[in-house]
Specification:
This protein is α+β, with helices and mostly antiparallel strands. The strands form two sheets. Strands 6-7-2-1-8 form a five-stranded mixed beta sheet. Strands 3-4-5 form a three-stranded antiparallel beta sheet. A hairpin with a 3-residue loop joins β1 and β2. α3 runs antiparallel to α7 and α7 crosses α8. The chain is elongated and about 75 Å long. The C terminus is likely disordered. Its main location: endoplasmic reticulum. Pfam families: CS, PTPLA. Belongs to the very long-chain fatty acids dehydratase HACD family.
């Protein structure tokens, strides 16, 4: 069955774009924004009745995909987008031929007075990406992929397999031995966990070398925070190896990654899987608070051990003439983890969820334009 596209009405200002999707009672709306495109899908009542609708648009110029979002109301869905550079566009899409379902929203239309919108030089291979790929496949028998993309596919696949392996091992042992296997979790998968957690530092390098978008600071603190718990709080304290909290934190970390890496793989392969997208931006709601709680318990259980062993503590006198109290550091770490740390992580994920899954149903406006 051919994909059905809803009617989409667009308007612009110099700084923004507004796309109104004509779908009533929409369910499961997903909008995946990139700097040059948007992929949209939803179920609702559109031009062809109640059906699953989807569309893809490649924009005339780059947009700010970090701030792009959408709002679902009873009779429409509005995609709110900021242009990367403030300028008037002569058209919405990259190609001169627009889809038949794309219309101008004359009720909201704005344009620059007496302005001649001169078209910039275009790259045909980008504007006609699907057609170019199909031509390449016919000529060569395959589609050439960029080295970066191939590497990212293998990286995400390898990380998914690694976390899946650890979950399978833990699950099989728990099924076989019951609760007795919980105390042996670190013995069974600890080394594998350390290896794959060290591999995650590659995610700090990816934005530096242009393999992914964003800053290297965020993944650095995320990976380092998890490795602080794994290496310093668990691995270096043998008495922590048998604690049940290690079993729970390993399960939580693995569940998060078993959704995240397949989602990235789907994005790299150009596939939009609605359930996977929903899980990626929803599963954190129960798992992140539980993970923060487990990490806090691990730090708390380590405090008396470090008071006893003086591990990582530097006392006077010494050749550097400095002092460092590891117990005080852990107490401060615990305070920062619970208060600002958890707030920053949860608010960041809530912002991403709003961007990908929308901000929920908006109230019906009191004054509507006549159709």
């Amino acid at each position: 069955m051919a994909n059905l596209s809803p009617l989409v009405y667009w308007s612009q200002t110099k700084q923004t774009l507004l796309l109104k999707v004509d779908l009533k009672d929409a369910k499961g709306a997903i909008a995946d924004f990139s700097p040059v495109s948007v992929n949209f899908s939803a179920n609702g009542h559109g031009a062809r009745g109640v059906n699953a609708y989807k569309f893809e648009l490649h924009f005339y110029a780059p947009i700010n995909d970090d701030t792009a979002t959408f709002v679902v109301s009873d009779n429409k869905i509005e995609l709110q987008i900021r242009k990367l550079e403030p300028e008037w566009w002569p058209r919405l899409v990259a190609t001169p031929q627009k889809p038949h379902w794309l219309k101008i929203d004359f009720d909201r239309w704005r344009t620059e007075d007496d302005a001649e919108l001169e078209e910039k030089p275009r790259d045909v291979r980008q504007d006609y990406g699907k057609e170019y790929a199909e031509l390449q496949k016919r000529e060569l028998g395959y589609i050439k992929e960029k080295t970066k993309k191939v590497y990212m596919i293998f990286y995400n696949l390898a990380m998914f397999v690694g976390y899946l392996y650890m979950m399978v091992v833990v699950g099989v042992l728990y099924y076989r031995d019951g609760a007795d296997s919980i105390a042996r979790t670190y013995i069974n998968v600890g080394n594998a966990f350390k290896f794959i957690q060290l591999l995650q530092y590659l995610e700090v390098m990816h934005p530096i070398f242009g393999y992914t978008k964003g800053s290297a600071v965020v993944p650095f603190f995320q990976v380092s925070g998890r490795n602080f718990i794994l290496f310093l709080m668990i691995d270096m304290e043998p008495r922590m190896h048998t604690k049940p909290v290690v079993f729970y934190v390993f399960i939580i970390w693995s569940l998060v990654e078993l959704v995240r890496y397949p989602f990235y793989l789907a994005q790299l392969l150009g596939r939009e899987v609605g359930l996977l997208t929903w899980l990626r931006y929803t599963i954190w709601i129960p798992l992140y608070p539980m993970g923060i709680l487990c990490e806090g318990i691990i730090v708390l259980r380590n405090i008396p051990y470090i008071e006893e062993t003086k591990r990582f503590t530097v006392e006077m006198p010494n050749s550097w003439n400095i002092t460092f109290d590891m117990v005080l550091f852990l107490k401060l770490y615990l305070l920062l983890l619970i208060l600002p740390g958890s707030y920053l992580v949860m608010s960041h994920m809530a912002k991403l969820r709003s961007k990908k899954l929308g901000r929920g149903r908006a109230k019906r406006r009191q004054h509507l334009h006549a159709d």
